[in-house]
Write a structure and sequence with these properties.
Elements: H1 16-32, H2 42-46, H3 50-70, E1 73-74, E2 77-78, H4 81-94, H5 113-122, H6 138-155, H7 163-167, H8 171-182
Antiparallel strand pairs: 1-2
Amino acid sequence: WGERVNVPKPGQKMHKLKAIENSNLACAIGKELGMSLVGISGPDIFDGSVKLTLAIVWQLMRMHVLSLISSLSYGGRSVDESDVLNWAVSKVRASGKAASIASFQDKSLSSSLFLLDLLASINPRAVDYGLVTAGITYEEKKANATLVINAARRLGAEVFTVFEDIVEVSAKAILLFVGALMCLK
């Protein structure tokens, strides 16, 4: 970071222009890291644009998980998103479960059944199938998704996903979730 971050003096508030300078610096660093920040600038962050700030946060979370899994290798090369999908499907198949998905946009993910089977393939004691529902109604899907997130956290995964991401099949969030599972030792 060739530039210095502005810090207010003790007991004083930061001046608006200095805060915007900090936000512009954050955007410049994000672009240097390869983030797509088209149409996002310092004033957007300073003004509290929820949509644009969340776009940055999502990219940071995605970069974090992908940096973790890129340190792994899959077939002798660095890991990409398709490798994460292939790993998950093969892990579930190897455990003898029939659940499968075609992509992280697969609507069957809303029931969480595949993700529960994936967690059980990582650690058979991770999932209490007595608590698992059919995942047909919204409430059943919510209960299963909550179970998935809690089980992943107990296994030590870095979880950025909330139950709504699973129920609504947010492909980006599910990729981050499965990537975090892939990084478990």
